[in-house]
């Protein structure tokens, strides 16, 4: 059985999906987190296959991810729908349910967030709600795993026995007549494509013509439909969209009136409003956001992070030393010893030491996200982003970009306008992703140990400022036009769930570990080989005679004006195109130093000024291969992807040049 999990954004679909299947997809108190559909088998019910779809508010899609969800429900014809409804926001959620019921597919409503309803002192009469809607309703709390087992039972029974929603006419008067006459008209066509005629009639009456093409109507029929709608509009004096929306809402009101007992005061909402008064304050909002971020960076990079990194670094160095001794005493060939110690241990180890820092950073970011604060930041940022021609929605991908550009670029699918989407894709790589963090960390450790947090913040901020400048330029040159208006609901503040924070942390750490042991491992081996042999494949005694040095030297003149015309730096930048962490591992391999010796080795290559210029360059230059491939795929254009690489690398050069000159002046 194929089951679709459908619901509004932020209603807890992914949380429920994780409970049902035992997987750990990313959950966020943040609309627009899930962009692709995810599939999994229900625990203990192996014949049920559930698909987690992006959140939608209606079956009339506006953005491409909403289309993904709509198409899946209407065209793939799942065997059952679990409609997840946020009980603390029931009217708006039922708006979608009304449309789903019309699809005439076996359906169960999972009434989520019951814990919040209870806490605020409200009750919902489940029996009556279920009776009014004509589908089974199961109260649950996905995050606390309450009611989920019962939901599985009810859903399994409903879908196995193919119990369809009871068909209720919730339209009345003029709208009723119009819908029914359209339904009558298109009945044959609808039967052919297997979608209920009443559902399609309502869509057509509403003016949603996205499914009209498939109906294969002739011009005469289309005219008749339009005529009927026109008559309805004249009769009731509102346009078609509002007429249908009014009809749905008045029915919902009736349903809710009879089954929902509201508390006198909604405590959660009140608390949220109180907190929002401060956090979204007209003038204080941005300073507060910056202070929070500053505090996080200070803790992550200044106080605990570097300490933990050092600790892990000395652990890895000790292990490397032991391995070297063990191999030497077993009289292993010195070339092999060098391969293991200078290649693998130095390369992979130098990257691994940054795991504590990355975990800390994501710990804080996921707290902010899960509490609901980040949604406020998007709201506050809307005003700023609007100045560069984007809407607050674009803030979401940019935020994800601090993790990794690849999912960030993919998440631009939540944006409704093609123009916003393209522009956001170009700006995402300016955010400092986690892979750049080891580079920043290693260099600040070597050159600016007393100002670690300041240097870090300066790089993150520089990336954002330059993204803004690029955006401004694009707005006036390439992407004219206006951003779409920003509509995003602000979820109630919640205490972050330990489990979802832990899962997110584990997810990020796992990604990083996997990359370290695959990409970085291979890159380290290759770099070791290339620097140890010359053109004739003889071992070289001085690595500046090696194959690698030969290749990299060609590019030295390009980087000399930036202060790092050194073949090791050039090589590091080249491998950085594969994966940004490889910049650090390459330095480790080329200088043959473990993580505790690496700072000294770097000081032999760079001055503080050229080190900062190098950081600026790595911040800005071409996105890594994976990101470029994603850009190409999402924009569906090789040319645009190439343009992005060229623009960024050129921009990086200019900025690094400026940084170097300023650095020389002040040092
Ligand atoms: P989605 O956008 O529909 O996939 O929603 P998510 O699964 O990402 O969840 C949105 C937010 O609601 C997260 O912060 C969850 O922790 C929270 N949440 C989910 N289910 C419940 C619940 O039953 N009770 C409460 N209080 N919060 C929940
Ligand atoms: Mg989700």
Give structural notes:
The mean pLDDT is 86. The protein has three domains: 2-160, P-loop containing nucleotide triphosphate hydrolases (Rossmann fold), CATH 3.40.50; 173-261, Helix Hairpins; 287-317 and 328-486 and 498-666, no CATH class. A hairpin with a 2-residue loop joins strand 2 (38-42) and strand 3 (45-52). The termini are far apart. The protein has helices spanning 13-21, 64-75, 90-102, 114-119, 126-133, 148-160, 173-193, 197-206, 212-215, 219-236, 240-259, 267-279, 285-303, 305-329, 334-352, 355-371, 373-387, 395-401, 405-410, 418-427, 437-447, 452-477, 498-532, 547-553, 556-559, 567-576, 582-591, 598-605, 608-620, 625-635, 638-666; strands at residues 2-7, 38-42, 45-52, 80-86, 107-112, 123-124, 137-139, 260-261. It has 667 residues and is mainly α. Helix 3 (90-102) crosses helix 11, helix 13 crosses helix 22 and helix 14 packs antiparallel against helix 16. The protein binds guanosine-5'-diphosphate and magnesium ion (MG). The site of guanosine-5'-diphosphate has 26 residues, from helix 1 and helix 4.
Gist?
The protein has 667 residues and is mainly alpha-helical. It has helices at 13-21, 64-75, 90-102, 114-119, 126-133, 148-160, 173-193, 197-206, 212-215, 219-236, 240-259, 267-279, 285-303, 305-329, 334-352, 355-371, 373-387, 395-401, 405-410, 418-427, 437-447, 452-477, 498-532, 547-553, 556-559, 567-576, 582-591, 598-605, 608-620, 625-635, 638-666, and strands at 2-7, 38-42, 45-52, 80-86, 107-112, 123-124, 137-139, 260-261.
User: Would you report the number of β strands?
Assistant: 8
Strand content: 5-15%
Strand order of the largest sheet: 2-3-1-4-5-7
- Counted by DSSP, the helix tally is 31
The total tally of domains equals: 3
Bound ligands: guanosine-5'-diphosphate, magnesium ion
> Which residues form runs of ≥5 with pLDDT under 50?
none
Please tell me the overall pLDDT. 86
Helix fraction bin: 55-70%
Radius of gyration: 29 Å
The N- to C-terminal Cα distance equals: 68 Å
What does the overall shape look like? elongated
């Amino acid at each position: 059985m194929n089951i679709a999990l459908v619901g509004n954004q932020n209603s807890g679909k992914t949380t429920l999906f994780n409970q049902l299947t035992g997987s750990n997809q990313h959950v966020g108190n943040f609309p627009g987190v899930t962009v692709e559909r995810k599939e999994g088998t229900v625990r203990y019910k192996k014949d049920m296959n559930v698909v987690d779809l992006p959140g939608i508010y209606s079956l009339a899609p506006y953005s491409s991810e909403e289309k993904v969800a709509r198409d899946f429900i209407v065209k793939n014809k799942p065997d059952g729908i679990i409609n997840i409804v946020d009980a603390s926001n029931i009217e708006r959620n039922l708006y979608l349910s009304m449309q789903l019921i019309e699809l005439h597919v076996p359906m169960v409503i999972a009434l989520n967030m019951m814990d919040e309803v209870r806490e605020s002192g409200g009750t919902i009469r489940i029996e009556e709600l279920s009776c009014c809607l004509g589908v089974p309703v199961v109260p649950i709390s996905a995050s606390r795993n309450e009611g989920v087992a019962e939901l599985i039972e009810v859903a399994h029974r409903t879908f196995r026995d193919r119990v369809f929603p009871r068909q209720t006419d919730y339209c009345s008067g003029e709208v009723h007549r119009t819908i029914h006459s359209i339904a009558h008209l298109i009945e044959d066509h609808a039967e052919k494509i297997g979608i209920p005629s009443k559902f399609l009639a309502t869509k057509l009456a509403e003016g949603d013509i996205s499914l009209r093409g498939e109906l294969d109507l002739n011009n005469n029929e289309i005219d008749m439909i339009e005529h009927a709608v026109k008559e309805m509009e004249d009769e009731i004096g509102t346009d078609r969209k509002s007429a249908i929306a009014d009809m749905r809402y008045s029915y919902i009101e009736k349903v809710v009136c009879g089954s929902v007992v509201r508390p006198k005061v909604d405590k959660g909402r009140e608390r949220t409003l109180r907190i929002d008064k401060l956090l979204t304050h007209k003038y204080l909002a941005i300073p507060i956001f910056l202070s929070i971020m500053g505090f996080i960076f200070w803790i992550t990079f200044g106080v605990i992070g570097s300490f933990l990194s050092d600790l892990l670094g000395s652990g890895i160095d000790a292990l490397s030393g032991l391995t070297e001794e063990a191999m030497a005493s077993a009289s292993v060939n010195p070339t092999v010893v060098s391969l293991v110690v200078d290649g693998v241990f130095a390369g992979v180890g130098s990257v691994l030491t940054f795991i504590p820092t990355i975990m800390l950073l994501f710990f804080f970011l996921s707290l902010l996200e899960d509490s609901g604060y980040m949604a406020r930041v998007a709201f506050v940022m809307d005003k700023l982003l609007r100045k560069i021609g984007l809407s607050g929605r674009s803030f979401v991908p940019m935020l994800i970009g601090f993790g990794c550009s690849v999912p960030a670029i993919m998440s631009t699918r939540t944006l409704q306008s093609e123009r916003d989407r393209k522009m956001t894709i170009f700006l995402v790589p300016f955010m400092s992703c986690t892979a750049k963090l080891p580079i920043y960390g290693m260099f600040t450790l070597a050159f600016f140990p007393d100002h670690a947090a300041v240097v870090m913040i300066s790089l993150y901020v520089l990336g954002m400022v330059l993204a803004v400048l690029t955006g401004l330029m694009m707005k006036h040159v390439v992407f004219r036009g206006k951003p779409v208006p920003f509509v995003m609901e602000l979820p109630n503040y919640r205490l972050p769930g330990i489990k979802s924070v832990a899962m997110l942390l584990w997810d990020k750490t796992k990604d990083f570990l996997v990359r370290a042991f695959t990409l970085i491992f291979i890159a380290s081996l290759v770099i070791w080989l290339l620097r140890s042999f010359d053109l004739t494949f003889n071992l070289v005694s001085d690595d500046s005679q090696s194959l690698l040095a030969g290749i990299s030297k060609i590019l030295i003149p390009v980087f000399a004006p930036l202060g790092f015309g050194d073949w090791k730096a050039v090589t590091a930048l080249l491998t950085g195109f594969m994966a940004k962490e490889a910049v650090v591992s390459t330095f480790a391999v080329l200088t043959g130093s473990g993580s505790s010796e690496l700072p000294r080795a770097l000081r032999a290559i760079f001055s503080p000024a050229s080190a900062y210029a190098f950081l600026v360059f790595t911040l800005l230059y071409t996105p890594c291969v994976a990101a470029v491939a994603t850009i190409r795929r999402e924009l569906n254009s090789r040319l645009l992807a190439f343009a992005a690489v060229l623009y960024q690398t050129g921009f990086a050069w200019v900025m690094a040049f400026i940084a170097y000159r300023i650095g020389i002046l002040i040092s």
